[in-house]
UniProtKB/TrEMBL annotation:
Keyword Methyltransferase: yes
Domain of life from the UniProt record: Bacteria
Annotated GO biological process: methylation
Designated name of the protein: Class I SAM-dependent methyltransferase
GO function term, MF aspect, one: S-adenosylmethionine-dependent methyltransferase activity
Keywords of the record: Methyltransferase, Transferase
Keyword Oxidoreductase recorded: no
InterPro entries: Methyltransf_11, SAM-dependent_MTases_sf
Boundaries of every Methyltransferase type domain copy: 36-131
PANTHER family, per the entry: METHYLTRANSFERASE, RHODANESE DOMAIN-CONTAINING PROTEIN
Entry-linked Pfam families: Methyltransf_11
Length: 250
């Protein structure tokens, strides 16, 4: 498995889209659910998922150092249980979880089919499995994977074909950045953002650049969760959405 991690302690251009995906996942959680967050990274997503009342979240990562840090960082959240996990060989009994969430994981595993099979095994009948992954038509448009941490990426059809045999439903949406939705684009705001994110300017501390942007436009320089939206139309997803977001039912 290749390693690529997003730390919630760092504000990055990807913070908003990661949080948005977890917030969308949390919409599928009910009171008292038992949840798996697989490839939990620094644990901020598991914390979001645990906010539904009386839930229990098992958060796993293959890296022992990451899990040790999470156990310390989130020790005051009694709903969270962090442990080392292998996505292709889960220790849990059949039909153990109500909801499984694994965001930006499948593109890092060579044995991704085994991971999907394990999710199918440990999810309860009627349970929900949520998987997100880059849309290769946007992330690697010529078919050659650009991200060195990804072992493969998927088209809409390829992801659908992978999930359909294991689940009774597999509904795929697409995540898109919507801060500047076409006709409502603010030319000055957009141009300023591009300038402050330009290669040379990026060497300046983020807090300094963010302060400039906020003082002029009243919002953060880097996108936040509200700057993203899920879209259901397949053609639109394939041509415009950088992330595929699959919600599956057992």
């Amino acid at each position: 498995m290749s390693v690529e991690r997003h730390l919630f302690t760092e504000i990055t251009p990807w913070t908003g889209e990661h949080i948005h995906r977890y917030l969308e996942s949390a919409r599928h959680i009910g009171e008292g659910d038992v949840i798996l967050d697989l490839a939990c990274g620094s644990g901020y997503g598991a914390d979001i998922l645990s906010r539904v009342r009386n839930t229990r979240v098992y958060a796993g990562d293959i890296n022992p150092d990451i899990i040790s840090a999470c156990q310390n960082d989130w020790k005051n959240n009694a709903s969270l249980n962090f442990e080392v996990m292998d996505a292709t060989d889960l220790r849990f009994d059949n039909a153990f979880f109500n909801v499984i969430v694994s965001l930006e994981t499948i593109e890092h595993l060579t044995a991704y089919e085994k991971m999907v099979s394990e999710f199918s095994r440990v999810i309860k009948p009627g349970g929900t499995v949520i998987i997100s992954t880059p849309n290769i038509k946007i992330s690697s448009p010529d078919g050659r994977i650009i991200n060195p941490f990804h072992t493969q990426e998927f088209t809409y059809q390829e992801l659908n074909d992978l999930l359909k045999p294991e689940f009774s439903e597999a509904n795929i949406c697409g995540q898109k950045y919507i801060r500047y939705p076409g006709e409502r684009r603010s030319r000055g705001k957009y141009s300023t953002e591009k300038l402050l994110l330009a290669r040379g300017i990026r060497k300046l501390p983020y807090k300094f650049r963010d302060r400039i942007f906020r003082s002029v436009f009243g919002s953060s320089l880097y996108p936040m969760a509200a700057d993203y939206k899920m879209f259901p139309d397949r053609k639109f997803i394939e041509e415009n959405c950088h992330v595929l977001f699959a919600v599956c039912r057992k």
